[in-house]
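ingest -> validate -> predict -> emit
validate: passed (alphabet ok, no gaps, 453 aa)
predict: started
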Amino acid sequence: MMNIDLNNDTISALATSPSEGAIAVIRVSGKNAFNICDKIFVGKKKISNAASHTIHYGNIIESDNIVDDVLVSIFKSPNSYTGEDVVEISSHGSFLIIKRILELLNDNGARNAEPGEFTRRAFLNGKLDLVQAEAVADIINSRTEVSLRGARNQLDGLLSAKVKYLRDSLVNSSSLMELELDFSEEDVEFINADVARKKITEIVSEIDLLLSSYSFGKVVRDGVNVSLVGVPNVGKSSLMNYILKESRAIVSEIPGTTRDIIREEISIDGVLFRLTDTAGIRFTEDEIEKQGVFRSREAIKNSDLVLFINDIREGVSEELYNELLNIVSRETIITVMNKLDLKPEYVDEEVVSISAKTGEGISRLFEKMKEIAYGGKAYSEKSAIVTNSRHYSALKKAKESLGMAIDSISSGMTGEFIAVDLRNAENALGEIIGEVTSDDILNNIFSKFCIGK
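emit:
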C-alpha cells in the first residue's frame, strides 16, 4: 500500500524518460520543496523567495562543487500539478547527473516518489478527478492518434462531466425521497412516484448510451487484436508482409512454412491493429508444427477480429470455417479471398476479394476491419465514451441498482427501499470519478503509473 503523508512528506523523482538525452526533468513536490531545493541550488534568487510560475538559471551545488548548471521552474501551491509547492529541475540528461541530484534531494529531506504519487496527490488535492487521473496514464501510453485523442477527451473531463451530471440527478431524487421519509407521519409527498420512475428511467437510458460506447472505447484505448487464419499456403504471410510493407514473415510455396505465430502492430487511420500471422491450422505429425497450430488456436481465442483467408482458386475452406465458429463468434470473422490477381473475374459481394501481391482490394479490407472493430457505430471526438473496464463495471452496477429502484416503485414499496437503491447507484457512479473510492482501488490504479508521474 502506498504510504503518503500529504502534510509532511516531500517527494522527488525523475519526470522524464530514464534514458540519456539532452535534458532531464526532476520533479519535487511537498510543503518543504522550496526549502530543500534552496539547500542545493544557487542562483540569483532563492527559490523560496521567487514568484510562482517563474524559471531561474543557476547551479546545483555539492560542498561548493558544481554538479550541473540547471533551470529551475517554480510552482506555488495551490497552482501546480499536484496542488502543492512544486519545483522542476531541468538538468543535462546524464545518468550520473540525474542520480547525484536525486541523492542530494534525498540527503536534504525529500524521499523517492512512489509510482503515480504525483498524480495521486493531484487527485487527493482536488486538481483532477479519478477519470482524469487515469487519463494521464492513458496519454502517456497512447500508441496512435485515436488513442491519444480519446485519452485527451477523458483528461478534458467529457466523461467526468457526464457522470457528475447523472450522479447529481440521482442525489436530487434520493434526497427528496429521504426527506419524504422524515415527514412520513404528516403524509407529505415531495416527489411523485411516476415522476421518480420517469427520472430514473431517463438516467438508465443515459447509462445505456455510455455502456454501449465501451466496445468502441476499448478499440480507442487498447487497439484491436487480429488473427490471420487459413489453411497452409493461402497467402497469410504475404498479406501480413503487404500490410506491413516489409518481409516480416517467410513466404514459401511449401505448406507449413510458418511454424510459430508472428505478431506485429500497425496503425490504420489512427486505430492500432495487433496482427498475428498464425501457423496454418491442419493435422500434422511434425511436433514443431503441432506447437505452432496449438498456439494459433490460442491466439484466435484471444482475437477481436479474425481474417479468414482463402485461396480464390480453391474456394472457402468450409471445414476450417466451421472450426473457427467453435472458437469465435461469426460476427468477428471476415472472409477474405486472396490471389485475385490469378482470377480477376472473381466476384462475390459476401466476401472481401484481395491480392496480397498487387494490393488490390486491401483498402476495402481495411474499411471492413474498422467497421467491425467499431461495432458499426461512430462517435464524435466530443462524445463521452467509456474506455476503461473499471468505469464500465461501475456503470453496470449503477444500472442494476436503478433497475431495482424502478421495480420497487412499480411494486408500490415505500421510499425507504427505493432510496437505498438510489444511494447504491450514486455510490457506483461516485466510484468512477473518485467521489466514493477505497484506498485499495486508488493503490491499484496509481501503482500502474510510472514513477515521476
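The CA atoms of residues 10 and 110 lie 5 Å apart.
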